């Protein structure tokens, strides 16, 4: 996002009715805001929000209970009314704005100040091969191959040696490491499927934090990786995805992960190293797949899976238990 003075943000909040002059119980006039982040990752120039209460988050964006707020750092923090008395417990917060709904205030802020990437740097390395039918507005590294119909939007960065075969779309605020391959129809950084309730209406969540992809990853045809809300969707090194794979917003994937065709992760799933998902396996949101676990074909995961476990069925259970259950069910049917 472009730098914005906190005084301009305060003026905008008052004009839109999201806050009033008394809402800022802590205010430093010299703050320049240059970014946004989850509250557990924010820095002194970032905007963030906290919903109060205990440490949990539907958007991977809270992370702190009031007992540990002293460690929070932010240029501007949106917080609920019950937090008005906490200003003295927030030494790392430069400005504290008390608002009715911090989530809504954060969404409105992002839509107003963080959705424009027109000033991002663009350009292609001399050694990159870009098809005449491609549109490249972002940064493309050395020895990349950008095929017909591909779109690299302004604010995206494609690392050296990457191959975008055909009709690949890379959205703003996507950073791709070296040596990655994207087959036809892959979409990286599109808005996640996220909504929230405010004033009796369901509203879209802007997912402007983008995607971060490591090195030597491959993406099969028509795979989609959704952007994060205030923290990027992240994929490590040496990960490989078959066709029609879905990776939801805010997911965090480690290294050496394999997902077969039509498997998918809902939003805010953590996948540790060396995990494998067979074809058609689906994982519900806000779960963790432990290191080295295996998800069998067409399994439906509704609870976090411990490291090294192999599961099958719906809801997914340990595979040997599932196999015994299937044998007994077959015998019951035959009888």
Number of helices: 3
Mean of residue pLDDT?
93
Q: What is the CATH H-level superfamily of the largest domain? A: Hexapeptide repeat proteins
The 3D shape can be described as globular
Contiguous low-pLDDT stretches (5 residues minimum) are 55-64
What is the strand content?
Answer: 25-35%
Count of folded domains? 2
Helix content: 10-25%
CATH class of the largest domain: Mainly Beta
List keywords for this structure.
Udp-n-acetylmuramoylalanyl-d-glutamate--2,6- Diaminopimelate Ligase, Chain: A, domain 1, mainly beta, about 10% helix, eleven-stranded mixed sheet
Give the topology, please:
Layout: E1 4-5, H1 6-16, E2 24-26, E3 32-33, E4 35-36, E5 46-49, E6 74-79, E7 93-98, H2 102-113, E8 123-124, E9 129-130, E10 135-136, E11 139-140, E12 145-146, E13 151-152, E14 157-158, E15 163-164, E16 169-170, E17 174-176, E18 181-182, E19 187-190, E20 195-198, E21 201-204, E22 211-213, E23 218-219, E24 224-226, E25 233-235, E26 240-241, E27 246-247, E28 252-253, E29 258-259, E30 264-265, E31 270-271, E32 276-277, E33 282-283, E34 288-289, E35 294-295, E36 300-301, E37 310-312, E38 317-318, H3 319-334
Parallel strand pairs: 4-5, 5-6, 6-7, 8-11, 9-12, 10-13, 11-14, 12-15, 13-16, 14-17, 15-18, 16-19, 17-22, 18-23, 19-24, 22-25, 23-26, 24-27, 25-28, 26-29, 27-30, 28-31, 29-32, 30-33, 31-34, 32-35, 33-36, 35-37
Antiparallel strand pairs: 1-3, 2-7, 20-21, 37-38
């Amino acid at each position: 996002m472009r730098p914005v003075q906190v005084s301009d943000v305060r003026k905008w909040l008052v004009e839109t009715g999201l806050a009033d002059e008394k809402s800022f119980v802590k205010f430093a006039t010299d703050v320049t805001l240059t970014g946004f982040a989850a509250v557990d990752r924010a820095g002194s120039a970032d905007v963030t929000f906290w919903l109060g209460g205990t440490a949990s988050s539907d958007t991977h964006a809270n992370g702190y209970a009031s007992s540990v707020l002293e460690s929070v750092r932010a240029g501007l923090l949106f917080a609920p009314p019950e937090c008005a008395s906490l200003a003295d417990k927030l030494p790392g917060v430069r400005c504290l704005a008390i608002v009715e709904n911090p989530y809504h205030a954060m969404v409105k802020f992002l839509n107003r100040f963080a959705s424009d990437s027109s000033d991002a740097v663009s350009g292609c390395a001399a050694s990159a091969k870009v098809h005449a039918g491609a549109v490249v507005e972002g940064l493309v590294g050395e020895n990349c191959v950008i095929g017909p119909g591909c779109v690299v939007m302004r604010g995206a960065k494609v690392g050296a040696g990457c191959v975008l075969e055909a009709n690949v779309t890379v959205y703003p605020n996507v950073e791709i490491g070296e040596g990655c391959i994207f087959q036809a129809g892959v979409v990286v950084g599109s808005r996640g499927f996220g909504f929230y309730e405010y004033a009796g209406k369901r509203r879209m969540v802007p997912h402007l934090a983008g995607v971060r992809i490591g090195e030597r990853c491959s993406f099969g045809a028509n795979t989609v990786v959704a952007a994060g809300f205030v923290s990027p969707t992240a994929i490590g090194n040496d990960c490989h995805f078959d066709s029609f794979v879905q990776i939801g917003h805010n997911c965090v994937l480690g290294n050496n992960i394999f997902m077969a065709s039509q498997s998918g992760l809902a939003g805010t799933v953590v996948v540790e190293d060396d995990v494998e998902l067979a074809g058609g396996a689906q994982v519900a949101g806000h779960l963790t797949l432990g290191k080295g676990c295996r998800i069998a074909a067409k399994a439906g995961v509704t609870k976090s899976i411990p490291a090294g476990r192999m599961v099958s069925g719906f809801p997914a259970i340990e595979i040997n238990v599932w196999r015994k259950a299937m044998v007994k069910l077959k015998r019951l049917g035959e009888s």
